[in-house]
Write a structure and sequence with these properties.
Two copies of one chain form a homodimer.
Chain A lengths: L4 H10 L7 H14 L1 H17 L1 E2 L6 E2 L5 H4 L4 E8 L2 H10 L4 E5 L17 H8 L6 E4 L5 H17 L2 E4 L15 H9 L3
Parallel strand pairs in A: 3-4, 3-5, 5-6
Antiparallel strand pairs in A: 1-2
Helix pairs in contact in A: 1-2, 2-3
């Protein structure tokens, strides 16, 4: 039996964090135990609290401590618009723009057949139910413009079309402040095709 | 009061980890809560266990759950040699070579005046006491070959010299498997000066 069993267990547990390998995990464990035991206890409590309290909003599927999240409870929003995003971070980015006042549906992921993540895992069925409540008139697909995000938007778009629900996709184009010379060709081609 | 208070607290707590900014912390929190609640609970317990059980070895200052660590209790080692390293990870690297059979003193840090870390913080006084026990004949300075590690070795070397204790430094030279063309000039100059 090693005399550093709990330390080894901590390094192993830190490796469960995304993007953390054995070297980073050792460095984190060393830092917390040598310089920041208070931080270690704080993080321990925060993990337990969040893990036991945070659940999914019944309407939009995002993280919340209640049955329905604050955004879905906000009656001042435009109920005819429903914006589909991949994660709460994407939702937060849209909120920060101040340009959208409708409701959200958070997939909490994206389609990724290689990782075994199919339509059921991102709750496409619940999204369709939500979108066919008779109030929603437009679903705005705001998944990321990555291969997986595009595929997710495509699959959801087809399902919405079969149900006869109108949907739009965020515009593809040249980002604000960029010089054409440095923008990738696919983006410029899209911006040309979608010119207005 | 936000309905995601515990989630925000978790993101803040994760930022106490070295090298983790707000984006990484959000990604980690999202991953744990969405895909790995078991990992979150595991990490929570591991942090608490390690933080409450791990202490410093009274002889070599490394992390241990006991009063004296296993390495210091190992009577098969050469008590005449004492190797000074910065961290337990450095000690582990030396152990893996299988080329050293003496004891260690782990500074648990390095001199870094800019961060307010002086000789007292890395236990130079305890090291001198340990090295003047009458048994130790050679102190091997194996701090890192960075600016701070070199400064640490220099300060400890001077203190040992005043006490009349013999010390050596790990050899500087060309790493195994490297081509001279790609080795930095300072290293080649050292390898030339120390040729044998």
């Amino acid at each position: 039996m090693s005399d550093t069993g709990t330390l080894d267990a901590l390094v192993q547990a830190l490796r469960r964090l995304p993007g953390v390998g054995v070297k980073s995990a050792s460095r984190m464990a060393f830092h917390l135990l040598q310089n920041d035991r208070e931080g270690a206890e704080l993080l321990s409590r925060a993990l337990h609290e969040a893990s036991s309290r945070v659940q999914h909003c019944e309407r939009c599927h995002t993280f919340t401590e209640n049955r329905i999240c604050d955004t879905c409870l906000d009656e001042g929003r435009d109920a005819a618009r429903l914006c589909v995003v991949e994660t709460p971070a994407d939702q937060a980015a849209l909120e920060r723009t101040g340009a959208y006042k409708g409701y959200y549906y958070v997939l909490m992921g994206r389609l990724s057949p290689l990782d075994g993540i199919g339509p059921r895992d991102i709750g496409v069925q619940q999204l369709l139910q939500r979108a066919t409540d008779g109030v929603v008139q437009e679903v705005i697909l705001a998944t990321n413009f990555t291969a997986e995000g595009e595929a997710t938007a495509h699959v959801i778009g087809e399902a919405l079309q079969r149900k006869g629900i109108g949907f739009t996709r965020l515009a593809r184009g040249v980002p604000i402040g960029s010089e054409l010379e440095y923008v990738d060709l696919g983006t410029i081609a899209h911006a040309l095709a979608d010119r207005r």
